[in-house]
Amino acid sequence: MFPLNNPDNEPDWPILARGLDILRTHRENFASSDWQPLVPGKDPAVWINQWPGHETTIYTLRGTNPNGHHGPLFRVPRRPKYHYVDLWRYRPINTQP
Question: Distances in Å between the alpha carbon of 93 and those of 3, 63, 85?
């Protein structure tokens, strides 16, 4: 993740830039003292953290299974007029009731 230390890591630059963009854009959430580490999920191999903010809540996910995960991950309370977005790709997330 540190391309300056190893030129073979040049493909990591876009990952670092994307991560910094998300951190800067949502600094209120990531600086929250009310964050919740390791929110219970449906797969113990996926670590979920909750970062609440004034108007938004962000969930960060870390998969520890090299085979990935398929299917529902966790439940969040439905709120009217809220939508769910994959911040990494800026795509809507399909949620299930």
Answer: 31, 18, 5
